[in-house]
User: What shape does this take?
Amino acid sequence: MCYSAQVIESYNVFVRMYGAAMSLQQFYYTYFSRSRDPKIRIPKSVDAWFSNPTTDLEREIEALIDQWNADQTSSLEQELFKQRKRLADAERTLQTKTTKKAQEDQRIAGNKIELARGKLSDLRRTEFVDSDARLFPGWYAPVMIVEDGHYVVKPMRFRYRFPGWNDAIEREKDGSYNARMDNIATKWRGAFGHRHGILMANRFYENVSRHAVEGRELRPARKRKTLFSNSIRSHGKTCWSRAYGRWASATTAARCTRSPLSRPIHRPRSRLSVTIAASSRSSPRTSAHGCIRIRTT
Assistant: This one.
């Protein structure tokens, strides 16, 4: 099943090839929403777009990113302090008496300390690595669409929300980030062929089972282990067609008011969510929007 894409972070690709404009209002709204909802995730490589702001709105976006990084750092440092104390307490107990609880606390605290250290390292790191461009289901990434005859780059969530769905339904049916070619004409008929955007990516990953890769049966009472495999690597020359839809959060819209479009928007507008076709080929129904190759240099 299609699991994650590695996003090309250069906005200049969209500008140079298509003359696209960035929707700063929509980016501002997405970053503003992230500052209040920890579930909203954006790749670090997209944050880098705003590291050298030139407009007031870009500076506000940079401020939101800096504040989010500071809040995350503070939270992780508190977690690290908590788990170090838990580990020290467990080790003191084990010096005098071996108990199952102390052993579990030692194991769990050690794992959480390692995890928190890794996250802190990623937050403080200034040089970029490939993992900074990884995009997972539910995360936001830049997608180019056409609005009023112009190419526009907007942040879109990597998961499609069908009309009539709410948060509960989406959690129950959380596979809507992947559209299979065999049901595009049925389940996805209202999406593909209607609204499409382009996501720049240079690698695509598959979420596969270890036992399937190794060509063996999963033994009884054994848990399924997951691997990530690079199903497509295109050296930065591929973009994927994305079907997208609009949706709004009733809970957040109810407590926000409209603000003039001439000012940064502090209210949720209609959100954009997307899915990606499981195949790199065009179907007859979407032949004009299939996966294409572009030159990025």
Remarks:
- Residues 250-270, 276-297 have pLDDT under 50 and may be disordered.
- Helices lie at 12-18, 24-34, 44-47, 56-96, 100-124, 167-172, 210-213, 250-254.
